[in-house]
Fold these 4 entries.
Entry 1:
Amino acid sequence: MIEKMSEHKPKKSVPAGEILRVYLPYVRRQWKWLLAIFLTGIFLQASNLAAPLFLRKFFNLLALETPTPTTIHALVMTLALVGLMWFISWLMQRLQDTANIFYVADVMHDLYNDSFGYLLGHSYSFFISNFAGTLTHRISRLVRSFEMISDTILTQFFPALLFVSGAIFVLYTRNHMLGSILAAWAILFIVCQVYIAKLRQASRTSRAEAETKVTGTIADAISNQPTVMQFAGVIHEQSILSDVVRFWHKATLRSWLIDGWTWGIIGLFVLCIQGGLLYGAIIYWERGLLTVGDFVLIQSYLLGTFNQLMGIGGQLRRFYDAFADAGEMVEILKTPHEIRDAQDAKPLAVEKANINFANVSFSFADDKSILSDFNLSIKGAEKVAFVGPSGAGKSTTTRLLLRMFDIKGGAIEIDGQNIAQVTQDSLREAISFVPQEPILFHRTLFENIRYGKRDATQAEVIEAAKKAHCHEFISKLKDGYETYVGERGIKLSGGERQRVAIARAILKNSPILVLDEATSSLDSESEALIQDALKNLMEGKTVIVIAHRLSTIMNMDRIIVIENGRVAAQGTHQELIEHKGLYHKLWSIQAGGFLQDDEMGPEVAEEEREA
């Protein structure tokens, strides 16, 4: 049942400290660019503070009643100094922007790579429990959030701190009262802004989570577009998205309306402070305590301070939004990988490729047991087939061999080495796996086949394609091996995808081969060709074949019948036929046509329907 967004309770937001701790190592790597940003920022604000001081002198000279050559010369020199300050400000701004571009781009580059690598390190169960679209969105938001947070700190907070502190100091030296008023107002403004921003953090987190759900819902519908079309589900999908968008709409409106009213009140407050300070300046001017140039100085610093503080206020919403956006990916980065290499894990060394399942137990979370005390030994170069009812644990067994899940008890060994004690990459390099429904990358056919051996030459790729009998259909394509196959290989038929997957396994040429219904999508003619190719591929390898079509496994060295998570029977085809057990029943159905239920008996018929 679909969860209604109106009933959704947002998760607790990730503390800002945790997010900053994720970013900190990347910032440290770019310390040279960061130092350049700070130094140019100091010179930039120093020149911005110095320019009004020279302007003060300039206007004081203009206020003289009778200009003289000396006064004109002083005016020109003062104006030159003002121009120099403006030029230094311009130059420092350009240098700071350049340093900031390199700094942010380098950090974002590393964040993309590392977060993507960590994400891919999560377990198979993690990925089947999350939308691909939302995971993609979270990586992008983590990286973009760094850009926003960094820019806010380096180009808003830091410059504002320097300028406002300098302006308050200069004004204080000219008039203690005006300087103190400006300092008190600046502190009050910042404290209020931070307080308001923190109060709204819950709504930001709610908005960010709703936005992620919108992305995931859209991605889910798009990736299942054929199903939507076949079941006339456009209106249904729109209604699902409508519920999700409605929640996002409410959260966004609430956030933006609060911002609007907040800024309206702040703007009014700024006008009052500006008018009040200038009125105070008039009183001090009347008493002879301030000059005309001081008015220019005060106005310049007031405008600069207001612009800086208003800039901070404007960025605070985006600043906290960035933390909310980054929080979802930080949760993933802080979640330990379910499947991890042991601390002293070594590469798997395969000699004979013996496989041993010893008292293996497995279940998904708190669900019922899938395997219970599962015991099976497979000799090197032996060809075995797994058969049994759906849900018996056949495919699960092969996935445990690949360590896509960790077992709950017992051990799985290859040549006496516990697979939990070897590196995952070396384990999976030793196994070629062809699934029942192969999924291809939206890349060229050449790239998809070469994924089995990423340094393979073009000749090796073509040879593998020929052995898998997919060279024939590839050669007929307009772009041949450079043809893009579409997302998940959708541009190819099921049989074509299967043959590409087999070509990939042939190219990989690992000592252990696992075929999970590898010929299920092939027509009879293609299957005959593939069976011949697989016969050559199996030579000298330890092979596990999962098959429901029993005619494809008659010549296996041994057939393992799995039922209720245990080995129910094993032997050659002939031995199991003579045994008169489940295998015999399955064979009778497939070889002689489906028997009537009343001929089989209700218990046997029920078993066969499950099988």
Entry 2:
Amino acid sequence: MELLIKKIEENLMEAFEKAGYDKKYARVVLSNRPDLCEYQCNGAMAAAKEYKKRPLDIAEDVLSKMNTDLFEKAEVCNPGFINLNISQDALDEYVNLIYQDEKLGIRKIGNKKTVVDYGGANVAKPLHVGHLRSAVIGEAIVRLRRFMGDQVIGDAHLGDWGLQIGLIITELKERQPDLPYFDPKFTGEYPSQAPFTIQELSEIYPTANVKSKNDEEYLERARQAILDLQGGNKGYHAIWQHIINLSIEDLKKNYSNLNVAFTVWGKESDAQPLIPEMVEYLKTNGYAHYSEGALVVDVAKESDTKEVPPCMILKSNGASLYDTTDLATIIDRRRKYDPDRIIYVVDKRQELYFERVFRCARKTKMVEDKTDLTFLGFGTVNGKDGKPFKTRDGGVMQLSDLIGMVNDAVLAKMMENKQVPEEEARETSKVIGLAALKYGDLSNQASKDYVFDLDRFTSFEGNSGPYILYTIVRIKSILEKYKETTGKGITAKITSTQASGEKELKLILSRFNDMMEQAYLDLAPHKICAYIYELSNAFNKFYHDTKILGCQDEQAKESYITLLDLTKKVLEQSIDVLGFEAPDRM
């Protein structure tokens, strides 16, 4: 469905050409002064230089050639603005088209095969607050791109090949040296049952990590264990597989609490078989060379204003690194999915690292020119002191504890009102808590740090997830009462009644498709949040100023109900893309 702003722009383009000016100057934007007009064209100012005429004269020429049927106001203001207000009839026609369209006017402009690398959890470690943004932003990007037409693969890309595996193997060997995994002469089948539970595993790693910081010999044994694992040690591989199986099972439960579902549970280790072939390719084609014993690829450019270190492919002892794994993963994804785009949702502090990896992949032709490699860096979640969010005793907060804290805060507020039974309130608080957490995060531009403010995030008023949900629940309640009292369905068209706030609500609804396209193109879930906050405010103003169910004019009442139903559908579709839902009552 054509964007309304483009429809207006086409009108202006025709007028510019009829007046003898280039249509490129006919760009229309939303007015930043809604008290003066709804839309604005500022092209006369830009055209003045080319045509050596006053902007005011150009704007007057264009206005004289315009078809003004689309507008209730079209006027020129100094020094050459063309100010426009769309007509009620044209607006009604447009919002009715949105309502009748099963896609709510959305053009499926996406046609890309896209891989989104997000989550990035490490196996054998519990999720903590540092994993929140990657999961929440990544899931929103996956849903948004899928909604707009892309074929999307969401990849968890688990860290399963790092030092933590070596530490666990080393600690397990100290505790249970008689296990068959550590017997080099063992030739039978290794046990199918892991020699530890997920609870025990979550204790083994921290213990081993502390030891490694105070015992250099212990740390060296852990490093050797990783080399042995990478070298094909069958016993260590069996332990590693136990760790993977238990960790993924536990991670799936934790991510489901965030309503996050990956398409594939990819791992660093998936690319390991490709590394020897990749290393040989880099050597044979002259891309890689040895520097101080390490195999590297230079990626610095003459235009760089800061130092860009080379990509290190192999350490001097022959071990692979993150650079190696990420490059091999690009090859693996190219072969499996042939993606048009790979989006990495990662802490913004890793930007230089990914810049190096992307440059290396391009320089060595590991990706085709058509494949876009995108770094979407996110900021940190901070406490009110401006520092990374911690527990009260200064430790790293586990994600499950953070979710529980938000749910408890929502429940406490719900019980203050006591509008629903406690058992129902407990279940509903989880739905609202998820909205509070996700909206609180996503309403910030991804690259920005933000302060985790529990009171603000869980407030039922203001710019918060609960406020958005409360708006949806309020609309649901009105629609339900309408059906109960009239026995009617929703069949009417949206018309103009001149009610206070009615046109503003329609104008915001008319921008839904345009907003979604911009959010898609800019990888910007925060634009969806800003939109639904504006839409919720407009609805609530309209609701407070207008008798809806009590309206005596049946035609007007039916129009109001249809307008409310459209508002609900747009809000529900938006929060679905963001990754949460609304309860039936609050």
Entry 3:
Amino acid sequence: MVKSSKGSRLSHVAAGALAAAIGAHGAAFAQTSESEEVVVTALKRETTLIETPAAITAISGDELAARQITSIESLAAAAPNLVVGQASGVSWVSVRGIGIGSTSGGIEGSVALHLDGAYLAQAASLDALMFDVSSVEVLRGPQGTLYGRNATGGTVNFISNRPTQETDIRVAALTGAFERTRLEGVVSGGVSENVALRAAVMWERQDEGYGENVYLRQTFGNREAHGGRLSGRFDLTDTLRVDASVFRFWDWTDGIQLTRLNPFNATARANNPIFNTAAPRPSDPRDINAESQADAERVLEGGNITVNWDFTPNLALRSITSYTRVDYSNLGADGDGTELPMVHSDRIEDTAAWQQEFNLIFRAFDSRLEGLVGVYYNDERLSLEGHNRWLAANPQGFVNVAGQVVPAGTDVVGFLQQDTTSSAVFADVTFALTDNWSIYAGARQSRDERDIVQTTGLAGLPGNVGLAACNARRFANDWDSTTGKIGVAFTGSLGNLYLQWAEGFKAGGFNAYNCGDAYEPEEVISVEAGYKVQAFGDRLRFAASVFHYDYTNLQVSQIVNLQQRIENAAAATITGAEFETFLRASDLFSVDLNIALLDATYDRYTDLDPLRPALGFQSLAGNRLNRAPEYTVNLGLTFSAPISDGRLTLRGEVFHSDDVYFRQFNQPQDKQDAYTTYNLFATWDTGGPVSIRAFGRNITDEDILLGVFSAGTIFDRWAIYAPPRTWGVELRAEF
């Protein structure tokens, strides 16, 4: 196994920092503006954040609103070692360097996403999950025991606001840069002694995009969205409660499209001489030259029923039943990054999944033993249709696709019907040996089965002969896994410590656009130590963790000839540390600081770069993992003072990230150089029902890459950028 010397140094630095932290008086951390005891559900039962032996960041709904975290991209700086983004209508989340930056549906991430306890199979509409939430919990590290599949990197839990017996009416209106308007409304209250309902709706429109299509002389990235959630809480008896919800969110944009990062090279021009006539790449990195605009729609809808039945004070049953459906289409996207009539891409997806989970939660021996046992079942149906249409209008008469000549008018197609079933039994327990020492352990036995019917090849040729190799062919595979964890925790007046060993597993699968092309499951073994404490009347909170991962068959994505595929890196090692601090220095002033250190490298991995095929398969040992900066720092300063009957709160944020690579080949063009961004927020609570908020994000207008993807067809790179400088003013009222 190849180890980098930098990783060894990082281990010593992290260990030293943790030792120093243990010697200090710190505090358990959560993203809240007030010092308070934070309760989390990370262990599938309510525990306080400080006593939970795991690396968790909990961000309250009020904090999300105050910092205008309404999109998946804006969540990134809220927790250490969290990298998020979105491309071609697919959201991705990476934790501690683990996550798949996919631009194609049907590819499951390595960070599990849950809404009110229910697993979300496809992450096509994550922005909708940021609406009317009580909190967001980011769990870092493999969660193979309690959460199982697709949680090798961690888990993000979105917890929506529940109905209240007290009447709660909220409205908000926002206006901002790029002709953005957003309206929200919430009504909650009891309709009887035992029944409470909540209705939440939102509407948003952005009439000016972040980039301009220079050829068509119009902006792209305009957006419209609307949706809502209706939920109910039914206290059937003193010991039986039912929570139910239904939701539907829709959004549309005219520009889910990547921008061309580099000029065409000599090979691309030689293969397709028509590129010599293309207009120069626009100077603004967010602008494009394209003869067509994409038309993209997404729908996320579903429902959830959670039943909590307390048999005795020490024994309870929870049932979670959910159904989710994601429909997505992106039609007419320009596939060559020029104004030339070369290729248009279409993608249509439909995913429907239902799941059932039962948890039996117990306490025994005067509450010295507590835990749960559970069973889980998930059934998912995915339908995917993709087209790369090489246009007959192409005056060149052909397209040279990575050295293969394809006649103009040809359609490279991919059809996939995929059925996935997952089942598991699991247990997680904690036993208090003394008042200070406890041990905890867990185990999960899982089975994943995947069955596909696949058609790939060329259409538009006489007799469709190009489809013969893979025309409605069936493939199937299944994987069994046993994952576990064991740890020891100490709770005392000077803080809480934990040390644990854990495993994670992510099932394999099939690449949608390559006939029968399968990839292997990934597995991880993790060792982690952490420290948390609160002190000085809860004015100071601190949390730290150090960790080391050994990965086998890490799943890595790249685009080959316009098609996304997953392959396996034989081995990878990740070592790092995280520090989170909140200090209320006075009644007026507070500071929060997150620091993340990460050394994430491939140990054994050979791969062919579609942008440099002449080099053949290269050893990538020692290269850094994608979306894994060596360090990030997020500093927040908050000043809050009473004014008349109200309060004025001012906040500034500074986020700094080291270099980030987006392709495993670690070429200079594959990365975002180190950068710093600044955000400003102001909130005036009038003392009555009305408050006014203003914000500016990325106020220095940095051009920041969120992703870089290969485009081997034209030996080029595609890119997606974070939003430029944005601002807004919001008026809120609560009754």
Entry 4:
Amino acid sequence: MKKFLVSLSLVMMLLLFAVSAHAIDVIIDGVKVDFTASSGAPFIENGRTLVPLRASMEALGAEVTWDDAQRCALVKKGPTTVVCYIDEACIYRNGTKINNDAAATIRDSRTYLPIRVVAEALDATVSWDGNVVISTSAAGNLIYSIENSGLHVSNIWKAWEKALAAKNSGNYQSAIDQFITLAPDFLAKHDSNSDAMFYKHLGECYSALGKNEEASACFKREAYYWSLASKEQETIDATRRATLINSSVQMYAKTYNDTYKPRKYFGEMYEPENGLYIGAYAEGDRAVHDPWSMNKFYMNEFPKLVGRDMSAYLLYMPSTTPLSHYQSHINMAIQKDKIIQLAVEPVNFFDIQPNDPTYIKLAQDMENSSAKFFLRFASEMNDNSCPWYTTNYNLYIEKFRIVADIFHTYAPSVPVVWSPNFYPANNIHLYYPGDAYVDYVGISSYMNHQPETDPLGQGVDRNRWSEQLDTIVGLYGHKKPIIISEGGASYIDYRTWADITPFASSQLYDFYTYLPIKYPQVKAVFIFDQDRNADSGCYRFSLSNNTQYLDAYKKGTQSEQYLATADAKAKLPQYYELGTNASVEPKVVEISSFIKTPANDTSYVVYNIYGTDVATSYGIPYSVNIDFAPYSKTTVPLKAMAFNASGVKVAEKTYYVKVD
């Protein structure tokens, strides 16, 4: 993935160790990090060791970016995003606050961050033996060790042919050894296309041996090189393969205590302090709405269909349509105190000019309506099927900013939502208009059956809808409230028209169950309740036409986190992600887990402390109640072990959790 923020070549981080005055090395899984003049080298100041951020974190297999507007560094590895704000004595791991006794600071135009707490947030362990010693999982720094092995071959292409021959004959370990030996010389040519193919072959060898974590690391690096070569589809394909075959365990604690509050409140108009708005696009479902009569109106009938009230509804409107066209909808929303997300689809988008009278009139009408609105404007712009799609990213940004300025001037009570499509994910950041022009970041998030993407070649769709928000939350969740502008899981295969109701229903239930647990940054979600046919195939999202799919939605939306009214002050419990150095209260705490395996085959989860099983749970979100009172003022090894239906362990994770 292209680095889209300013260079961090001089970014540094503060290591919390008292040290002696000799040269300091950073050693990751036995490999010494090669610091250069451009990256900076470790040095000691006032008893603290300063270590370059980019070189160290990339050696851990992470990506590092810098957000100048928010004055923070972002470190991303797999499903984990760590945000470090300047002058805050803490970091945020996927939204969970982890306190630290030193703040990130800027001195001499360089940023310094605490390496220990960041490395541990990425599931590494850090120790001191005169040098900084970091240990990760088997594939933690695989890429760094390959590219910095110091090995050389006399004839690159002869070695390349030998590696390919070993791979083609099924001698995968021999092929891996050959590829790694030639890697430094091969990659030194800086041919992005060839470098991408190198990692594709290497990843396929690891995958054939069942070493999915190593294969995932290679496919991720393949995607990086494809992005350097501006190969969009290849980048998407490699990123998907890297994601689908990885395993991970994430544990979450439930709390009513604001001390542990993971949810960031930005103070935007209508933003809920706790919980999230639950909404729907239901105007197109004839079972709940008659467009020619108020006798069957979706704001009355949809809650009956799904067995619960909604706090918000979605409407689509071309920019040339007057707001009065939806007057009956607006009146009903005011009467019922519901929020309307108005998705304005611009006509002649690229002809928009400053002080455009069409948008001034729309802004004034919305402001004067007395209704609560979100304005979603020119959405899904990153999808090439969109009428306002362009690779002239600055042109899109220019036009969006014009309309955002109009609404901020003439409709200050109407927050502006910038909302890309979930696919493709690698170009989303290129269209971002800037913090001053965006109040909420949205996303269109859909799940479609794609067994052809199986990196293991078994024709199984290994995608997980409940992971799809990692990109948008990782990019913007630290600085903007997030909404899922629309979404659904099609229960008809969009190409073959085969009935895949069990697949879609399982994805829908999984998504809504984990949404308030995994993503405290999300403040609203809208289900798309309408069938549609498009050039790309057949899609079926209607809740009223599929009982199993409807039941999955009903079951998945039972959480008290889903707000029935537009109440921004609801007092609710929250969930926060655990990790090494995260804390829990010394009492009975509800713990849940999100388990990712290549086969998505978790049947039950066993929780263990100090080698003793303390609880077992069957079925998502694998919630249990654990009494931490006996461990007060200590740090305990909390382990979650996932098993499939045959009793085979498929994933596990141990976190060293502080008990306050």
